[in-house]
């Protein structure tokens, strides 16, 4: 069935044509599995990243690499990219309802840390070995039985700032500094939520352990636009 681009990505494609937006990094295009029926083509990236399934039971983000440029089809008047696919085999129960292709995205899904990594004095967080850079988007949630650290709201987008080694501060998506008022308790998850969603596709999937799954993407760019003259 046809799959439509996300609204925001259509805008990016339009701006790319006139040099007002950059092309995605071809090494950072990933397939995400989303377990929600409520997100759609108008949803924000943060809303979609929130519902990505955890990296567990054989699932991780899968890199989508277009090895060639494809070709223009004169008959159908469209440029056809070569088909690419992503596969994994479940090592436990996996369930999801949609897939998304994200561009300019991190390979990692989540990082875990404890309240000992929250410094209320400097309002910074330390997560060993994280791959964040300033400006990245992140979401947080507490593990079962944990209490999230003060100053943030679960499943809300924050931006990384002041990155130094494995430590960083936070701002709101609007750029206001975040003060961490308490360290909370227990274990927390940080979702890597940087990137733009290119497209989404309905894929209601329930995989038992040992079952393989493959997603194939066959993208085309149609030859149509609008213009007026006087």
What is the SS-derived class? mainly beta
Work out the count of structural domains: 2
Q: What is the CA-atom radius of gyration, in angstroms?
A: 20 Å
Strand content is 35-45%
Tally of alpha and pi helices:
2
Q: Strand order of the main beta sheet, please?
A: 7-13-10-11-12-9-8
DSSP helix fraction: under 10%
User: SSE order in H/E notation?
Assistant: HEHEEEEEEEEEEEEEEE
Low-confidence stretches: none
**Main pleated-sheet profile:** 7 strands, antiparallel
Q: How would the global form be characterised?
A: globular
Number of strands: 16
In terms of quaternary structure, the protein is single chain
Overall pLDDT score = 94
- End-to-end CA span: 40 Å
Describe it.
- The protein has 230 residues and is mainly beta.
- The chain folds into two domains: 7-105 and 195-222, no CATH class; 110-192, Elongation Factor Tu (Ef-tu), domain 3, CATH 2.40.30.
- The chain is built from two helices and 16 strands.
- The protein has a seven-stranded antiparallel sheet. The chain has a four-stranded antiparallel sheet with strand order 2-1-6-14. A three-stranded antiparallel sheet has the order 3-4-16, with no helix packed on it.
- The chain is globular and about 65 Å long.
Helix-strand blueprint:
Blueprint: H1 7-17, E1 30-34, H2 45-50, E2 62-63, E3 71-73, E4 78-80, E5 84-89, E6 94-103, E7 110-114, E8 118-119, E9 124-126, E10 137-142, E11 158-164, E12 167-172, E13 187-192, E14 196-207, E15 212-217, E16 220-222
Antiparallel strand pairs: 1-2, 1-6, 3-4, 4-16, 5-15, 6-14, 7-13, 8-9, 9-12, 10-11, 10-13, 11-12
């Amino acid at each position: 069935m046809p799959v439509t681009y996300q609204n925001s990505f259509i805008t990016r494609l339009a701006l790319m044509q006139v040099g007002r937006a950059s092309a995605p990094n071809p090494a950072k295009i990933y397939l995400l599995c989303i377990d929600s029926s409520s997100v759609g083509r108008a949803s924000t990236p943060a809303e979609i990243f929130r519902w990505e399934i955890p990296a567990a039971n054989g699932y991780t983000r899968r890199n989508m690499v277009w090895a060639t440029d494809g070709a223009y089809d004169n008959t159908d008047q469209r440029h056809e990219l070569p088909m690419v696919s992503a596969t994994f085999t479940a090592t436990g129960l996996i369930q999801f309802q949609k897939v998304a292709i994200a561009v300019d995205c991190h390979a990692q899904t989540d990082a875990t840390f404890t309240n000992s990594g929250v410094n209320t004095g400097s309002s910074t967080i330390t997560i060993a070995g994280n791959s964040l850079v300033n400006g990245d988007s992140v979401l947080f949630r507490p593990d079962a039985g944990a209490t999230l650290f003060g100053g943030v709201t679960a499943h809300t987008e924050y931006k990384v700032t002041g990155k130094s080694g494995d430590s960083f501060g936070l701002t709101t998506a609007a750029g206001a500094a975040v003060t961490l008022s308490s360290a909370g308790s227990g274990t927390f998850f940080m979702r890597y939520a940087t990137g733009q969603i290119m497209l989404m596709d309905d894929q209601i999937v329930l995989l038992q352990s040992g079952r393989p799954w493959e997603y194939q993407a066959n993208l085309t760019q149609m030859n149509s636009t609008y213009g007026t003259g006087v």
